[in-house]
Amino acid sequence: MDFNLVNQYAEEIKQSGDAEQHKRLISDCIPYLLYLRTKFGFLSIPKEDIKNELAYDAVSDAIMKESDKLPFIYRLKNTFRDICRKRIRITREHDSNLMIEKYDIRIPKLLMGTSAPQKSPPTQSQDNELVEMANNILADHDPFSKKVVLQKTRGSTYPEISDIFETPSNECKRVYWHDIDVIRTILNANPEEE
């Protein structure tokens, strides 16, 4: 795979939104994503899932990450890794919950490794403040964009969000990444103070 050519295609797609070129880019990236699957040890994720769904999500997300100044191929690697980790975590939690229910295990989920530890009051307070700040930042934004951010935060995929709001998937991605960039910019307005 010619990384420079792929980077160029990604930039052209970001500018033009050409659906056919987007499909070609996805098919060009599938061998690289299958290589990353092996390299990162995501062998529990079937190759068919990568070809049918994850390649589309990873390529589309990597194209839409405007805040990241890395070349497309690096954004693709990072995005694919994050998607695979999330899928494995969700699968593991689902399987563990089924096992807990099936065998009527009374051990708390935390001991089974399927639940996040309870946050301390100061940490929970900081998280609540960040959520409130994000809500205030998005207060003047279009209601549709806030709904897209909430759906994506809850773990919905872009095709699912597209179906929910009857809006093209690329538009949902654009809106989501625009709002995330706005939140990041405002929250990190003075990085030298950190």
- Indicate the low-confidence ranges by residue numbers: 108-116
| Rg of Cα set | 19 Å
Q: Into which percentage range does the β-strand content fall? A: under 5%
Largest sheet: none
- In DSSP terms (H or I, runs of 4 or more residues), the helix count works out at 9
Tell me about this structure.
With 194 residues, the protein is mainly α. It folds into two domains: 1-115; 119-194, Arc Repressor Mutant, subunit A. The protein contains nine helices and no strands. Helix 2 (19-39) packs across helix 3 (47-64) and helix 3 packs across helix 4 (72-102). The chain starts with a helix and ends in a 7-residue tail after the last helix. The relative contact order is 0.09. Residues 108-116 have low confidence and may be disordered.
Could you give a quick summary of the protein structure above?
This protein has nine helices and no strands. With 194 residues, it is mainly alpha-helical.
Layout of helices and strands, plus pairs?
Elements: H1 3-16, H2 19-39, H3 47-64, H4 72-102, H5 109-112, H6 121-137, H7 143-153, H8 158-165, H9 169-187
Helix pairs in contact: 1-2, 2-3, 3-4, 7-9, 8-9
Question: Which descriptors apply to this entry?
Answer:
single chain, about 190 residues, mainly alpha, Arc Repressor Mutant, subunit A, 2 domains, 9 helices, about 75% helix, globular
